[in-house]
Design a protein that fits this description.
The complex is a heterodimer of chains A (358) and B (158). Chain A is 70% helix and 1% strand. Chain A is globular. In chain A, helix 2 packs across helix 12. With 358 residues, chain A is mostly helical. In chain A, strand 1 and strand 2 form a beta hairpin. Chain B has 158 residues and is α+β, with helices and mostly antiparallel strands. Chain B has two domains: 32 residues; 99 residues, 2-Layer Sandwich (Alpha-Beta Plaits). Helix content of chain B is 24%, strand content 21%. Chain B has a three-stranded antiparallel sheet with strand order 3-4-6, with no helix packed on it. In chain B, strands 1-5 form a two-stranded antiparallel sheet. The longest helix of chain B is centred in the first third of the chain and has 28 residues. Chain B starts with a helix and ends in a 5-residue tail after the last strand. The chains are: A mainly alpha (358), B alpha+beta (158). Chains A and B meet through helix 2 and helix 14 of A and helix 1 of B.
């Protein structure tokens, strides 16, 4: 059957036959880099038009409908506009840091792509601490926001950056604890092991109520971590004009914008991997016939389907819920999500030890 | 006791969020609810809400008769001097003098479509129309005389 891993293997074998192993590895790295950049560009275009259409339909509007068939080329036109705009650097800013910040934001998003398994045996880097790597690298993104806010030399930017710092640092905790719930159940930090452990059912079904609680906490925490409404205090259009990227324009702004959407994709991919089985098809226990039918749908379709479902859920949150104030935001984390996820991890540990899950 | 309240709060919060999400999912899946009007394209079939207020007009019937008595209630009600009522005195068949309007001058460029004149009118002589394409090249065209030339008051309207 056609699959990503077969294509990857074919390219790998051909390169190794044609060139010596060192050169082949370098060429493979270049191919992977180009593929990641291409995926970024496509994701940026697709997610922006998806966001605009979802928001429009939720708010009983039509949304973009002029550029291309049913407005589907709108984000392409917007990107073209951003490309030709002048990327200004304000004279009062710290120029080096100001220009560095968007690249850090992009770099973090690119690094986070590494351990994600897009299909079976189709992964950039199968490292044995994949989950730890993701939670460690994702916390660097706050540095890019802090740098952007500080270097802009603008009170709105600085305020947005400081809010974002408080927000991301606190929500990392409950996101980490809810990820830990799945790690406890699986007994491994390797993303492939986690996916393989869901061959007889996804963790959200196998893990009973604690897994569902962990999933809800996770999806709330990652919404906050990616600075999206209802937790968009770092941008806070209504109070801080645009928060940390007030002073950014043109392509530098576009990089922040792209990084936000790619981060949304990545956290949804992680959520899909941990709770919904990644590329693993929908399997139910020992129903061999049913499982076999489900295997006919390729893994990549399952992976992207689940990821885009989670992205839709996060967009749904954004256009439904009212925004939180900064004190309410921190209350939610420290008084509700953190105690709940701490208690939850106790439950999950007991469940894993006593073997109550399927 | 504290714990019960805490858990109740959490469940109440989740429940109310789910109610909101259900509503927005309904709108997301029911595209017939969309209220956007694609204006220049659907000019012929454009359907405005009933209470949309475009400009003040004075309806006339088939005999070129209106209901305005010239009481100047609309002029007094108008907050920014949009309406000027110019009155005259008609001679009735019995030989009495009777107040009537000569011209009801309406300055569209001053009007804020607040509807206060329509509310003030005791004889329902003026109403709000739904036209809204008001742009003209000459400002003088915005000053309108609402009663048609040669029109007179309807019988029975005092």
């Amino acid at each position: 059957m056609w699959s990503f891993s077969k294509i990857a293997n074919l390219i790998h074998e051909w390169l190794n036959q044609t060139f010596n192993p060192t050169l082949a590895t370098i060429i493979e790295m270049v191919i992977v880099g180009i593929a990641v950049i291409g995926l970024f560009a496509v994701l940026g275009l697709v997610l922006v038009i998806m966001e605009r259409k979802v928001s429009a339909w939720i708010q009983i509007r039509l949304g973009p409908n002029r550029v291309g068939p049913k407005g589907m080329l709108q984000s392409l036109a917007d990107t073209l506009k951003l490309l030709v705009k002048e990327a200004m650097t304000p004279s009062g800013s710290d120029k080096f840091l100001f220009n560095l910040a968007p690249y850090i934001a992009m770099m973090v998003a690119m690094l986070l792509m590494a351990p994600i398994a897009f299909a079976s045996n189709f992964q950039m880097w199968d490292l044995n601490i994949g989950v730890l790597y993701v939670s460690a690298v994702s916390s660097i993104s706050v540095i890019s926001i802090l740098i952007a806010g500080w270097a802009s030399n603008n009170k709105y930017s600085l305020m947005g950056a400081m809010r974002s710092g408080a927000q991301i640092v606190s929500y990392e905790l409950s996101a980490g604890l809810s990820i830990l719930a799945v790690v406890v159940l699986t007994g491994s930090l390797n993303i492939n092991d986690i996916i393989q452990s869901q061959a007889n059912g996804w963790w959200i079904f196998k893990g009973h109520i604690p897994a569902i609680i962990a999933f809800i906490v996770f999806i709330t925490a990652v919404t906050a971590e990616t600075n999206r409404a209802p937790f968009d205090l770092a941008e806070a259009e209504s109070e801080l004009t645009a928060g940390f990227h007030t002073e950014y324009s043109g392509m530098k702004f576009a990089l922040f914008f792209l990084a936000e959407y790619v981060n949304v994709f990545i956290v949804c991919a992680i959520g899909a991997t941990l709770f919904l089985g990644g590329w693993m098809p929908f399997h139910v226990g020992n129903w061999q016939g049913f499982n076999h039918v489900m295997d006919y749908i390729p893994g990549s379709v399952w992976f992207f389907g689940k990821t885009f479902f989670l992205i839709f859920v996060i967009m749904w949150f954004r256009w439904t819920f009212p925004r939180l104030r900064i004190d309410q935001l921190l209350n939610l984390e420290w008084k509700y999500l953190l105690p709940i996820s701490m208690f939850n991890i106790l439950l999950v540990t007991a469940m894993a030890i006593l073997g109550w899950h399927f | 006791m504290f714990l019960v309240k805490y858990i109740k709060e959490v469940f109440g919060a989740i429940k109310s969020l789910l109610v909101g999400m259900r509503r927005t999912l309904y709108y997301f899946t029911h595209h017939k609810e969309i209220i956007t009007q694609q204006y220049p394209d659907n000019r012929e079939t454009l359907k405005l809400p009933d209470r949309f207020k475009g400009e003040v007009v004075m309806p006339h019937d088939a005999n070129n008769e209106h209901r305005c008595t010239g009481c100047t209630a609309c002029e007094l009600a108008c907050p920014n001097g949009t309406i000027k009522v110019v009155t005259k005195f008609d001679i009735t068949p019995e030989g009495k003098k009777k107040k009537a309007i000569d011209k009801l001058v309406y300055h569209l460029e001053l009007c804020t479509m607040c509807n206060l004149c329509v509310i003030a009118c005791p004889s329902d002589a003026i109403v709000m129309d739904q036209t809204f394409e008001h742009s003209v090249f000459n400002r003088a065209e915005l000053t309108k005389v609402l009663n048609k030339p040669g029109s007179k008051i309807m019988d029975g309207v005092e």
